[in-house]
Design brief:
Blueprint (H helix, E strand, L loop, with lengths): L4 H11 L26 E3 L3 E7 L2 E5 L12 E7 L4 H16 L9 E7 L4 H12 L17 E6 L3 H14 L3 E3 L16 E3 L5 H13 L4 E7 L2 H16 L3 E8 L9 H10 L6 E4 L17 E4 L18 E5 L7 H6 L8 H10 L2 E2 L13 E2 L20 H22 L1 H9 L2 H4 L8 H6 L1 E3 L5 E3 L10 E8 L5 E9 L9 E3 L27 E4 L10 E4 L4 E2 L9 E2 L4 E3 L6 E3 L1 E3 L6 H26 L4 H4 L3 H19 L7 H35 L12 H25 L3 E5 L6 E7 L3 H24 L10 H24 L3 H32 L6 H11 L1
Parallel strand pairs: 2-5, 2-6, 6-7, 7-8, 9-10, 9-11, 11-12, 12-13, 14-15, 27-29
Antiparallel strand pairs: 1-5, 3-4, 13-18, 16-17, 18-19, 19-20, 21-22, 23-24, 25-26, 28-29
Helix pairs in contact: 2-10, 3-4, 14-16, 14-21, 16-17, 16-21, 17-18, 17-19, 18-19, 19-20, 20-21
Length: 864
């Protein structure tokens, strides 16, 4: 409802003029002060007075620019807020109930004095002074005519007006009970010792907002605040909270109040442009009057409003279908709706008269012409609030009205406690009723701090140590119906008294989302969520909510979406293919049940049996020339060492225990050293034998078993010495290799000292190389005595195997490393067996005719 500037100018000039006359209507119960702004000031007499500073009307005031004298008038009237008149009716209803209750305050009547502050701090200061003065004389402590006994003041819909009231009332120690400000700084009892409020501070609400956003994973949101002190405080408070919880704001729009209601197209275009794209959730913060700007917002978004905004049906449109709003928990008051339905217009009730004038757009003859601009017809008195739709006036009590109701009852219960005390009873006995209540406002504070009562709705009301109400927040879902009506559905709660971790609760199945989302939970993120198995990578300079996804590295998993980092699996587990979970590793080793182990074991046994057969053949034909010609003792020793070599390979198959690990490399090194020594001794014997054939050769003394034994024993003892040092310093031991094979725990033998391991291999290589060189030089000696060419081929294969063994061994892991070593043992040992003994076995078994002394002599002569 708009008032013309001309009418407002005349009214404002009257409002700003102080009065020095006390003019009062004589009625006892309802005396309407017809001074200052009599259409926005409401008074009801009583023994004790409760003051009220409420906000119903928004004015835009002329701004001073310091270039000309200030003007004593207003620019224009913005709007009436019909919903806020319910605050007055709640106070009226509470006072009516208390006065009719003979048990709560017997023989005492409460009255009220309500002032309008126009949402303006300066006028708040002015009207608080009016409450403390007589008939707006604005002279503190001066009383003329009516002697009001003001005990407490209810009011402060915003933080600014609450602070302004507390500044003045604090000088007189008059209790102030706010019904609308959630600002945190007002909980400071040092700065605001007389301040109480029937709502909690906003810490609980901020926690609820964050948990709501995190519950639906809305991490990329828009933020709209209003460009005032409250908006600054809210931003300073919510920004670090968002940062800690990885919630980012795609934009922050600060709207000046000067543009409210002006339908600024530029501002609307700004909002439209900012809310495009993937930002589906917008948090809007403002005071009660902020809802006047609702028609300018875009549709199709999830709007989240704070309790300060007082989101009511008066300003609801289809654009807010699916919106979520925080409200202070309240219960339905019995008889309040009935009280509103039965309200009738009375000339003496200034509150109802003004409400009637605004809602039904009519006027009463008792008012001046200033009121006639609101409506063109006269009020009949038959109008009823029950007939009005909900978007014009709600009959259901709002949470701000609920807090006003509780504030009045808090004062009444404090007075009852004082009356019930011994001093109160004594005073009643010694004097009249009024003199008994000749108390000072500051005396209420000890009782207010400890007041605790159940209101008529059954809710317990009490203040905490900071003077804040201990209450919870409800989360309301606004549902617009087809017939342009609405429904408020409670979908969640933020309860500070719930067990730790369960303060926030929400039932998402009953939430109605905006139509474009087709009842699927909307997404509002800067980027798509990272799937399990991926972690977030934030580029330098980007917002923390804008990131790319990178698959977890080897050995790490991320089992939750949007993981900040991948977690390493325990040593006994490894990631699955998706890298979103750790699964137990398989214990593996080269066993006899393994196909590879079974094949290698089979070949080892076959070679062992073949060696046994060769040994048997040589033993059976030990008197034949071919056996005698090649040093029978060394032959037997070499065959026995080859038997042990093949058996040694079986030590590498099966579970590697402590004893097995000690025997594996040590037995392998010593047995092969013996075999290599025998081959070297056989080669040297062949060379010496030919050198001894020359006449008068001194080499004849070197021939015989003694030389062979010395060579074999000395060369073997060197390897034994190396092995002894190995065992004494850092012996092999069993270990679990967790990392070499993905998904496997390899049970293997650790060499202990890698240096000693390679020392064994090097020494074995030196013996082999020496045997190869000597055999190669002696390969052309006559066949009668010569097996050097067979040794040459065998040692060539032997050396090739072990030279290739080293890089192959280093490149393999787990059981395949063991298989490489077994293969090298079998091939190198098999080469000695095959190249040295199979040709002889061929002659012994298949060509016995060649195994004669005559044949050997003939071949020797032919060679000559």
């Amino acid at each position: 409802m708009m008032i013309t500037e001309q009418d407002l100018t005349s009214l404002a000039t009257f409002l700003l003029l102080p009065s020095s006359v006390c003019k009062i209507d004589g009625d006892k119960n309802y005396m309407i002060a017809k001074l200052f702004d009599n259409e926005h000031e409401y008074y009801s007499s009583g023994d004790l007075i409760i003051g009220g500073v409420f906000s119903h009307i928004i004015y835009i005031f002329e701004q001073d620019d310091f270039k000309q004298s200030p003007k004593p008038n207003y620019k224009h009237l913005m709007s009436f807020m019909r919903k806020n008149y319910q605050h007055d009716l709640a106070l009226l209803f509470a006072v009516k109930e208390i006065n009719e209750n003979s048990e709560l305050l017997p023989n005492i009547t409460l009255g009220f004095h309500i002032m309008e502050n126009y949402f303006n701090t300066k006028i708040t200061y002015l009207n608080v002074m009016n409450l403390l003065s007589t008939q707006h004389a604005r002279i503190p402590n001066y009383k003329c005519g009516r002697q009001d006994h003001l005990l407490a003041v209810i009011g402060g819909l915003s933080s600014a007006t609450s602070s302004a009231m507390a500044t003045v009332l604090g000088l007189y120690k008059i209790p102030q009970i706010s019904h609308g400000s959630l600002a945190r700084e007002l909980s400071d009892k040092v700065q605001y010792p007389i301040f109480y409020r029937m709502i909690p501070n906003q810490d609980l609400q901020l926690s609820g907002i964050v948990q709501l956003l995190l519950h639906f994973q809305w991490t990329w949101i828009g933020l709209i605040v209003f460009d005032d002190r409250n908006g600054d405080t809210f931003l300073q408070t919510i920004t670090p909270v968002f940062t800690r919880n990885v919630i980012c704001t795609a934009f922050t729009l600060r709207i000046p109040y000067m543009k409210f209601g002006s339908h600024d197209n530029g501002l609307k275009e700004t909002i439209d442009s900012l809310t495009q794209g993937i930002v589906n959730v917008i948090l809007i913060y403002g005071d009660s009057q902020s809802s006047l700007y609702i028609p300018s917002i875009p549709s199709g978004k999830i709007w989240i409003s704070t309790a300060q905004w007082d989101f009511t049906a008066e300003y609801v449109s289809d654009k807010f279908h699916g919106a979520l709003s925080f409200t202070i928990h309240s219960k339905k008051l019995p008889k309040f709706q009935e009280f509103l339905q039965n309200l009738q217009l009375h000339e003496r009730d200034s509150v109802i008269q003004r409400l009637w004038e605004l809602i039904f757009r009519c006027w009463k003859t008792v008012y001046s012409k200033t009121h006639q601009m609101i409506g063109s017809s006269k009020c009949t008195g038959l109008e009823s609030l029950e007939e009005l739709p909900g978007n014009v006036f709600e009959l259901e009590i709002s949470f701000y009205s609920y807090t006003v109701y509780n504030a009045v009852y808090a004062v009444a219960h404090v007075l009852h406690a004082m009356y019930s005390s011994s001093s109160g009873h004594k005073a009643v006995q010694n004097g009249s009723r009024l003199s008994a209540w000749n108390i000072q406002p500051w005396e209420l504070h000890p009782y207010l701090k400890n007041v605790r009562f159940n209101n008529n709705a059954g809710q317990e009301v009490f203040f905490n140590e900071n003077g804040d109400l201990e209450a919870s927040f409800d989360i309301i879902n606004w549902v617009m119906l087809r017939n342009s009506t609405f429904e408020k559905v409670k979908v969640g709660k933020m309860d500070p008294e719930a067990p730790s971790g369960q303060e926030f609760s929400i039932n998402e199945t009953v939430i109605q989302w905006p139509k474009r989302f087709n009842q699927t939970i909307p997404h509002s993120t800067c980027t798509e969520n990272c799937y399990p198995g991926y972690n977030k990578i934030i580029e330098e300079g980007d917002a923390i909510c804008c990131y790319s996804c990178s698959q977890c590295p080897e050995g790490a998993v991320a089992n939750k979406p949007d993981s900040k980092a991948c977690n390493q699996c325990p040593d006994d587990q490894y990631p699955n293919k998706q890298r979103d979970d750790c699964i137990p590793k398989i214990i593996t080793f080269l066993s006899y049940t393994d196909p590879l182990g079974r094949v290698l074991a089979t070949f080892a046994i076959l070679f062992f049996c073949s060696t046994l057969w060769v040994l048997g053949v040589f033993t059976k034909h030990r008197q034949t020339p071919i056996v005698k010609a090649n040093n029978k003792g060394l032959t037997y020793m070499l065959l026995i060492s080859l038997l042990l070599c093949f058996l040694c390979s079986l030590l590498f198959i099966g579970w590697p225990g402590k004893v097995i690990c000690l025997l594996q490399q040590i037995a392998f090194g010593i047995v092969f050293a013996v075999a290599g020594s025998c081959v070297l001794a056989k080669t040297i014997t062949v060379v010496l034998a030919f050198m001894a054939r020359k006449p008068n050769s001194k080499m004849k003394g070197w021939l015989g078993k003694r030389l062979s034994c010395v060579i074999v024993l000395s060369c073997s003892l060197v390897q034994v010495g190396i092995s002894g040092v190995w065992l004494g310093t850092s012996p092999p031991f069993p270990e679990l290799d967790m990392h070499s094979q993905p998904g496997q725990i390899v049970v293997q033998c650790n060499e202990g000292s890698v240096t000693m391991f390679y020392a064994v291999l090097v020494y074995m290589g030196l013996l082999s190389l020496a045997s190869f060189v000597v055999a190669f030089l002696a390969r052309k000696l006559p066949d009668t005595f010569n097996e050097a060419k067979f040794i040459t081929f065998s040692m060539m294969v032997f050396c090739s195997v072990w030279v290739s063994f080293v890089p192959t061994y280093l490149c393999t892991k787990g059981k395949y490393m063991v298989a490489v070593e077994i293969f090298s043992i079998l091939v190198s040992s098999g080469s000695l067996l095959g190249f040295i003994f199979l040709p002889k076995c061929y002659i012994i078994v298949l060509r016995p005719d060649l195994n004669s002394k005559k044949q050997f002599i003939r071949k020797g002569m032919y060679r000559k």
